[in-house]
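Design job #97: recover the sequence.
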């Protein structure tokens, strides 16, 4: 699926590019759509055209195998390619490599039949992980990366603002780390119900009522940790108000506005710690795969639609709608 220009997708056939020495060719079996793909499609994120989008994908190795990964093995692909030689990479901060690229944005990605990736970017999938839920592992790695930065420990109260795909994953990861109570906040009753099924101890509708619920559940102190997953500035402002003195704030949703109102005095007065997380690191993939394989992270519950690769454009429009009971859209490349 070639994006020839903003809002112009074409289903076509291309020749396979040569395979570099340190690369592996993967037959992509399943991929998923996310908000970044929507923004690239609409032209909100500038890219070079033509481009094959897609950065959440899994598949089977067909060429370039070695002693670690064999031909025919199912693998998950890490789309964040890093240089390995810069200051950030040497410091173990590969997620912010200044020379890094994202497959599907800076290079051709996974909305295709085949994809060539550096060998270090692939991770074996155990039988316990279904291929239809595997693309969402990429999203989960970014959530795990953020929570590892926060270092949530048992008994801490955690508020998750926004219960889309990443918010639902944050709820589950916080529970897996022993957080209590975990409070999910969204205007959608359907998403609140799903979060409760996935482990949220309390849910509340967005707005003034949510702050009252948080204060009541935390003895009036406010939450130890607030994770903002909507990417909307007013939601971040609410998160600052919900955090306790000395609490931690993770602005996980990507906020693109360049100005707006925040309760800055509260940041000072409460002495809040703000942790910003970007992408994930390679080490987050085996850990996330293990959580899914052990049933501690349910990604299958987040899959609401499965369509064929040729239906990508209509699926993107579905993502751009206000439909309530829609979470993850998976592309089955065999259809």
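Job complete. Output follows.
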């Amino acid at each position: 699926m070639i994006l020839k220009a903003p809002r112009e997708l074409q289903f076509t056939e291309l020749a396979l590019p040569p395979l570099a020495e340190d690369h592996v060719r993967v037959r992509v079996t399943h991929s998923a759509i996310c908000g970044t793909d929507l923004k690239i499609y609409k032209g909100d994120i500038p890219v070079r055209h033509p481009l094959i989008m897609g950065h959440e994908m899994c598949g089977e190795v067909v060429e370039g195998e070695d002693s670690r990964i064999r031909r025919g093995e199912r693998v998950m692909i890490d789309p964040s390619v890093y240089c390995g030689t810069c200051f950030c990479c040497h410091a173990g901060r590969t997620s912010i490599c200044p020379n890094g690229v994202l497959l599907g944005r800076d290079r051709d990605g996974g909305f295709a039949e085949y994809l060539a990736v550096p060998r270090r970017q692939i991770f074996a999938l155990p039988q316990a992980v279904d291929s239809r839920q595997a693309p969402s592992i990429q999203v989960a790695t970014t959530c795990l990366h953020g929570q590892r930065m926060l270092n949530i420990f048992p008994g801490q109260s955690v508020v998750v603002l926004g219960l889309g795909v990443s918010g639902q994953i944050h709820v589950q990861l916080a529970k897996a780390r022993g957080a209590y109570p975990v409070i999910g906040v969204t205007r959608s009753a359907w998403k609140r119900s799903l979060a409760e099924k996935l482990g949220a101890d309390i849910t509340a509708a967005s707005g003034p009522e949510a702050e009252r619920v948080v204060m009541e559940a935390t003895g009036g102190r406010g939450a130890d940790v607030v994770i903002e997953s909507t990417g909307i500035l007013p939601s971040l402002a609410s998160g600052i108000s919900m955090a306790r003195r000395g609490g931690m704030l993770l602005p996980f949703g990507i906020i693109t506005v360049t100005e707006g109102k925040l309760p800055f005095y509260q940041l000072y007065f409460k002495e809040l710690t703000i942790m910003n997380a970007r992408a994930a690191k390679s080490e987050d993939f085996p850990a996330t795969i293990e959580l899914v394989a052990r049933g501690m992270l349910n990604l299958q519950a987040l899959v609401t639609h499965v369509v064929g690769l040729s239906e990508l454009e209509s699926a993107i429009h579905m993502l751009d709608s206000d439909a309530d009971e829609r979470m993850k859209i998976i592309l089955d490349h065999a259809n």
